User: Fold these one by one.
Assistant:
Number 1:
Amino acid sequence: MTAPVFLVESLAHVQAGGTVTVDGPEGRHAVSVRRLRVGEEVVLTDGQGTGAHGTVAAAEGKDRLTVAVAELRTEEAPDPTITVVQALPKGDRGELAVETMTETGVDAIVPWPAARCVTQWKGERAAKALGKWRATAREAGKQSRRLTFPEVADPLSTKQVAALLADADFAAVLHEEGSAPLATAELPATGRIVLVVGPEGGVSPEELALFAEAGAKPYRLGRTVLRTSTAGTAATALLLGRTGRWS
């Protein structure tokens, strides 16, 4: 089994041969939940692409872990990057979408309150829901042993999503009535890929028209219709394989 990953605020001044102390919630999880012991391998990451690989030097109290760092590793920046604009699903399906997309390898997630979304984020609910998405991305990033966690952006309006699509090197709207399969779309070798995943009720004709003006054509994934909480994960996996990032 690969070494567990724990998130730290910064690794800017950490060097091989030194030590890092992990406390707070991460330290409690390591000491009291995972019950790590001296000598066990661990990885510390800042979530921005850097990892400190080492072993447990000490476990004190209920929430204090000291790690002896053996080496620092840095992940190469992904290219092309994959951003998924995710329409707001009902209930906890939003966290499910964020979790599985993170585990698969998405680089950024943009919440989108589409016209046909049953769920709408407003006021305190918006801040709470966004916090859940970001916490889910962090936990899924650790669980999947990532060193670079995906950014979960602030929600964007439909016009803002259109601007994001216009700036992409490849933009697509996942749509069950799309005439072209995403599996055969011509993809850029570098740059940014942006996919739009609509709500359960589908992307409205007005939204489709606006996104088309921005250069995003409708594409289908396959013969079956996926739910909004799973379509982004399936599309991300497809593109990671096609772009060579999974090779």
Number 2:
Amino acid sequence: MRVILAEDSTLLREGLVRLLAEEGHEVLAAVGNAELLLQAVDEDPPDVVVADVRMPPTHTDEGLRAALEIRRRRPAVGVLVLSQYVEKRYATELLTGESEGVGYLLKDRVVQVDEFLDALERVAGGRAAFDPEVVRQLLGRTTHTDPLARLTARERAVLAEMAQGHTNAAIARRLHISQSAVEKHTNAIFDKLGLAGGGEGYSRRVLAVLRYLGS
């Protein structure tokens, strides 16, 4: 795939360039700030962008705002956002837009090469990829009514895997249950959360869950 990287840490940026090149991917540009990221995407749109949330000059939300702008200008470009911490406001702002081809990973996940590459491929393919810790904390963002309290332990496990962007087949493998059981639990989840009328597409399904949890 064709990738553009935006990361102000030279060490991490160069490490990602080398990793992606070794995996056979083409790195079109590797930049250190959001302005250069937007320029690079305009000059040669990639399949996917990997961007840090916090970049110069203020190290607050430059990367996130650039990611949102890329999604607005070029919805076909996947965006995988990296963050040092679980920043719920930023995650919610990104994920409550059109979530096809978006991801949010903690930087610690990058050192787990297989997981990072899997997330990158999912995002480049128009799917979703959310860090398990991000999902865990978003799942904790329930109000005093706590609708998740209606879910069984198995349904919570399926929901957590679903929110990370895994397909039913992948969830079945990860939880060691049948795919038909996953489908049964998924239907029960949407029924209990009042989301039964959501879209059939798997990435739209994830979006519906995250919209609900972020409300």
